Amino acid sequence: MNTINVGISKTKKFKRLLYIDIFRGFSLLVMAWIHIFNALWVSNIYLTSPYYVKSINSITWIPPSILFTFVSGMSVFLLVKKRLFLKKPKLGTVLEIIKRYGIYVLISLPLTTIMWGINTYLRWDEAIQGIGFTAIITAIFIVLFLEKKYFKKAALILIFLCAGLQHYLLHIFNIYRINISVLNIILNIFFRGWFSVINLLPFMLGGILFFQFIQKKHYKKLFLYGLSFAALSIIFHFYVIRINYYQRSLSLTFLGITESIILFSVLYAIYQKLRKDSIVSRFLEVYGKSAFFVYVFHLLVIVKVLEITGLGSHLSAGYSWLITVPLLVLIYYPARMYLKKHKKHLI
């Protein structure tokens, strides 16, 4: 009887958290909007104001790739913590994470080749491959340090170390040299690609720290955590190194973590006020739970089709908005059908 009760309590302790699905769904919604809108619009959203922000050389003020990476850190943390809590071997946990996220790195190869060409994959410039591989590195860090008293300090040190090293290493290596040699691909994976480990790991670790604060209701600490990174991003931008999204400046790390903390804190506050069966909650939940499907579907079925048929890149901003919004809503329905058939494969 005791064994059964313990098993039930452990299951309840690690039940799926709806607000993380909503966070992920929102991030993916913004990402899909940018891709679809850009495919329709006659101009280039990545280089044209008001969407392009010249002052920080970025696609929008809050790039969705950073938001999604931030949330991915929370997901990896929960997966690893659950397995460690259930006394599963650490090596087995790491191997399970490799299997779970490594598939995204592999699937990214044909997807990236179809969408942008194989060079994008070799440069490590596609979101799925980068987030998938960095999730594995993040899982290894969690396994090694989660049970240590200094886990948060170790995460913060690694955030600053990655940010500083990236700034230094980008001055040493040629960022986009295309070479099939194994050494160059490794350099792209860990340093040179935009979705390299050294660029994404700080955002994943930032997401883990954010999650720990809200789970334990340490809101004052969360405020100080966000305020500290906000102060760093402002100081560095104006007095040290300007924020530069495309060039991955040191200050971008601080800004990305700051913006993610602010946005997801607001979403969390709204989530607590919303009915869990509201239209907004259900819509973002489906997007979040079927994130991989939504990502692949909107790229191949909408963006690529617009490109192949020549129907894209002809509309004004107003008409692009009018078509993008209903397309984002329509994606919800195949995503919901996908969920019903693949509940066991949720990320």
List the helices and strands and how they pair.
Elements: H1 2-13, H2 18-40, E1 52-53, E2 58-59, H3 64-85, H4 90-115, H5 118-122, H6 127-145, H7 151-169, H8 182-192, H9 197-215, H10 219-240, H11 250-273, H12 279-289, H13 291-309, H14 317-341
Antiparallel strand pairs: 1-2
Jot down its keywords.
about 350 residues, two-stranded antiparallel sheet, mainly alpha
Helix content: over 70%
Instruction: Please report the distance between the alpha carbons of the first and last residues.
Output: 32 Å
Number of helices: 14
Main beta-sheet strand count, sense and barrel state: 2 strands, antiparallel
Mean of residue pLDDT values = 90
Structural class: mainly alpha
Shape: globular
Radius of gyration: 20 Å
Strand line-up in the sheet with most strands: 1-2
Strand content: under 5%
**Low-pLDDT segments:** 1-9
Q: What pattern of helices and strands is seen along the backbone?
A: HHEEHHHHHHHHHHHH
* Number of DSSP strand runs: 2
